[in-house]
Amino acid sequence: MHHTLEIEDLTFAYPDGHLAVSDVSLSIAPGEKVALVGPNGAGKSTLMLQLNGILRATAGRVRVCGIEVKEENFGPVRAAVGLVFQNPDDQLFSPTVFDDVAFGPIYQGLPPEQVRERVERALTAVRMQDYAERVSHHLSMGEKKRIAIATVLAMEPEILVLDEPSAGLDPRARRSLINLLRELPQTMLTATHDMRLVQELFSRTVVMDGGRIVANGATEAILSDDELMDAHGLEVY
Question: Which of 52, 103, 119, 234 is 20 to 30 A away from residue 128, measured at CA?
């Protein structure tokens, strides 16, 4: 059985020469939920943008569901990897919630009946089925985060890649998001500064700093290693 995600010796430098990701290798098994933590500028977001080809690796390779991430495979790769950005306003731009969630399936060329089914399924999965006719920009931050996740679920990806999903949420919306992520069956890689989220949701944690993976193991062991946490600017609140 192949891993859902395989990253081998991945290196990425920006055009100005700044090395954002250096020699990173990581594999994630089907259905596994993994947290990616580290200080700002550690390379977490840059790494995530390699997973569906938004940024192109300088060296090394990435395989998603056995498919190599390269230009000729972008179609199947982007169908397999659902990327949820930190700011939901980067993902919500249509007149209604329905249109936002339908955008991906329409782009995939599905017929209207199938698009409608996908939208209903995705909105039900995030418990927002009554919001189809609402305007995304009038929703709360917690509601927008759920709709942003629904826009990605409508594409039926194998892996969800989330950037700071709990940022900007009040305690109730955060609790509700944690429960939602726990229920979703997809393989998950989540970059976050929210250590309580990590503790509650992820059995494995990967620590990045300076573009490299500096630790990769059981969440409990990593979060209780005071020296490691301290060295990389991480705190369990």
Answer: 52
